[in-house]
Amino acid sequence: MNNSANHKRVNDILLGPLERPALHWLAVHTPKWLTPDFLTATGIVGTLIILVGYILSRYNPAFFWLATFGFIVNWYGDSLDGTLARYRHIERPNYGYFVDHVTDAIGQVFIFMGLGLSPYVSFNMACLALIAFFLMSLMVYLRTSVAGEFKISYGRLGPTEARLVVILLNTAMFIFGRQAWQLKISHLGVAVINPYDVYVGFFALLLVYFFLTTAWQEAVRLAKAGR
């Protein structure tokens, strides 16, 4: 069993060629008083802004822009804290690994609960998406422990792409408002479909797919290695 804090980091995402230089530039130009711990806290503040924005969208859809701003704040804090620690050579592997993932879990609860408390996505669908996210997080942590590889990108998709997907959802909900599509099913009547629920549901199914395929592949690898 590997020490989870001492791992190989794999983040091969579509936006990596843009994100990595941007994070390096930010780390170089970050004031000395701004610490990785401060950035981690900033990431959590971002998720609180998202939560508030989603709840307030019940009164005005313009608050989706507040939620989107929260995603930008969250990206800044959550993505830059580790980069800054590595740039300044002040890494604390065990502390950083633990705190980073505890705050990630809390932040995701804020995000998905907020989405479910908006009038555009059902609370049940938001909870299903949260469960799928936690399943995928569990897989990442298990593989870090048994394989020594902290892989957060699957199918070239990672946390940054996930944020972009939700920002696109926010934009659609602001522009098109509440939607209820009617689908006529012969002999069964008319089904009412919320397209935003479909969007979130597809995201959840994609996470479950990555979870199941990765679990199978890793189990086969470990079985062969144990012979």
Could you explain the architecture of this structure?
By secondary structure, the protein is mainly alpha-helical. The chain has a single domain (8-225), classed as Four Helix Bundle (Hemerythrin (Met), subunit A), CATH 1.20.120.1760. The chain has 7 helices and 4 strands. It has helices at residues 16-28, 36-56, 64-88, 93-117, 123-147, 159-176, 195-225, and strands at residues 8-10, 149-151, 181-185, 189-193. The strands form 2 sheets. The chain has a two-stranded parallel sheet. Strand 3 (181-185) and strand 4 form a beta hairpin. The longest helix has 31 residues, at 195-225. The mean pLDDT is 92.
Task: Write a short abstract of this structure.
The protein has 227 residues and is mainly alpha-helical. It has helices spanning 16-28, 36-56, 64-88, 93-117, 123-147, 159-176, 195-225; strands spanning 8-10, 149-151, 181-185, 189-193. The longest helix is centred in the C-terminal third of the chain and has 31 residues, at 195-225.
Structural key phrases:
mainly alpha, two-stranded antiparallel ribbon, 4 strands, 7 helices, two-stranded parallel sheet
User: How many H/I helical runs?
Assistant: 7
Quaternary state of this entry equals single chain
For the largest beta-sheet, the strand count, sense and barrel status come to: 2 strands, parallel
Based on the coordinates given, report the CATH architecture: Up-down Bundle
Number of strands: 4
Uncertain segments of ≥5 residues (pLDDT<50)?
none
- Please list the strands of the largest sheet in the order they lie side by side: 1-2
Q: What is the top-level CATH class?
A: Mainly Alpha
Structural class: mainly alpha
CATH topology name: Four Helix Bundle (Hemerythrin (Met), subunit A)
Q: What is the total number of structural domains?
A: 1
Span between N and C termini? 16 Å
Q: What do we call the CATH homologous superfamily? A: CDP-alcohol phosphotransferase transmembrane (TM) domain
Q: What gyration radius follows from the Cα positions, in whole Å?
A: 19 Å
Q: H/E order of the elements?
A: EHHHHHEHEEH
